[in-house]
Design brief:
Length: 257
């Protein structure tokens, strides 16, 4: 039996379902969630902070020695520079400042993701090098959007979107002059890679390579930090190698080789 005519009839009758299906898949994609998260943060930055004080730059891709790094939002002001990383997530979020990986829990399902503070640290280092300024004058800010709830204590610079103005305005000490601010805005504009499909494609490829490399590294089953190879010096296993958590003595987790 030939099914082609039947399929054609079904498609002809219900053609309108095809774009709806594509749209539904798009709305559920990580890419779309990321874009919507950045849009929400952009609205807060644009309309809840004075434009004459804070200069906003979006989706800035800066070159690095091994590829590139992309910063969602940069605020440049007399009171310092803010490098903002956005996370659009739902469920319960567990993590601490020192952990290599944080945990997302949705009902009984748990998944690991990179500590955004560590991720944004690279952004701030690259930005400091680009502007040739003291790294201490750049403030890292992690913004969570979506239906997520922190279940462990997080640092002050990990906030929900509505708390962005509070954190930014808490930095009241004047660090830069208006002339220096203008110069840094121009410097970032001149140093960033030109926004294009190629720039984004190359950056995504670089990020994928980093993830593949990190996935091959052994992580602590207890806290998520890196494991290091060690040798037992005493006891029944003296002389044998084992994996020990890099956060020892805070974490004493071990894994046999």
């Amino acid at each position: 039996m030939y099914f082609t005519p039947i399929i054609l009839v079904v498609l002809k009758s219900f053609w309108y379902l095809v774009p709806l299906f594509v749209l539904a898949m798009l709305l559920k994609s990580p890419w779309f969630k990321g874009v919507m998260g950045e849009v929400l943060v952009n609205i807060v930055l644009k309309y809840r902070l004075p434009k004459d004080t804070y200069n906003l730059l979006k989706n800035v891709t800066l070159p690095t020695s091994d590829g590139s790094t992309q910063i969602d939002h940069i605020l440049i002001s007399r009171y310092g520079i803010f490098a903002i990383e956005t996370k659009n997530m739902k469920g319960w979020i567990f993590g601490s400042e020192s952990q290599k990986q944080w945990t997302q829990q949705i009902f009984k399902h748990k998944s690991k993701f990179q500590n955004p503070l560590h991720q944004n640290y690279k952004h701030t280092r690259v930005l400091a090098d680009c502007l040739d300024i003291d790294h201490d004058n750049i403030f890292s800010l992690i913004v969570f959007v979506g239906d997520s709830v922190f279940k462990t204590k997080v640092p002050d610079n990990v906030v929900y979107a509505g708390d962005i103005p509070r954190f930014v305005k808490s930095k009241e000490e004047t660090i830069f002059s208006e002339r220096e601010v203008s110069g840094m805005v121009e410097a970032v504009g001149a140093g960033r890679l030109k926004p294009s499909l190629k720039t984004n494609r190359d950056h995504v490829k670089h990020v994928r390579e980093i993830k593949e490399r990190k996935s091959s590294e052994k992580s602590c089953p207890k806290c998520g930090n890196a494991m290091t190879m060690r040798k037992a010096k005493s006891g029944a296993n003296a002389g044998n190698n084992f994996w020990g958590c890099s956060q020892f003595p805070k974490c004493r987790s071990i894994v046999p080789v």
